[in-house]
């Protein structure tokens, strides 16, 4: 079997492994294997092919991978997590909410709640909107 075909097979296997992992490391080594295949196609001896593999791999891993990872991570949308993700969500009053508080169900969880506007009350079954979360208490306003 020609050495270039072996390098191509290695490149394909590494690329397939990258598809499973997604860390951009194996794909850089696959690029190095393509460098080894190119060296083989140019008639380089085995040690020259291995050198081409090593040099291309090092350049890709050290130079290209960090840039690509930064770009990929910057392109990800930011999502609110924890209590910040509840702000703006709809809820249903479970236990009447008044000045002393009450209970509201938000996204399947029950939270203590109090109205944003002082003196406002909500009856069980009313729809509310989460204005903010203060500690373990949802501050709510009348929903639609």
Automatic annotation (TrEMBL):
<feature type="domain" description="NfeD-like C-terminal">
    <location>
        <begin position="84"/>
        <end position="141"/>
    </location>
</feature>
<dbReference type="Pfam" id="PF01957">
    <property type="entry name" value="NfeD"/>
</dbReference>
<keyword id="KW-0812">Transmembrane</keyword>
<dbReference type="InterPro" id="IPR002810">
    <property type="entry name" value="NfeD-like_C"/>
</dbReference>
<keyword id="KW-0472">Membrane</keyword>
<dbReference type="InterPro" id="IPR012340">
    <property type="entry name" value="NA-bd_OB-fold"/>
</dbReference>
<feature type="transmembrane region" description="Helical">
    <location>
        <begin position="37"/>
        <end position="62"/>
    </location>
</feature>
<keyword id="KW-1133">Transmembrane helix</keyword>
<dbReference type="GO" id="GO:0005886">
    <property type="term" value="C:plasma membrane"/>
</dbReference>
<dbReference type="InterPro" id="IPR052165">
    <property type="entry name" value="Membrane_assoc_protease"/>
</dbReference>
<protein>
    <submittedName>
        <fullName>NfeD family protein</fullName>
    </submittedName>
</protein>
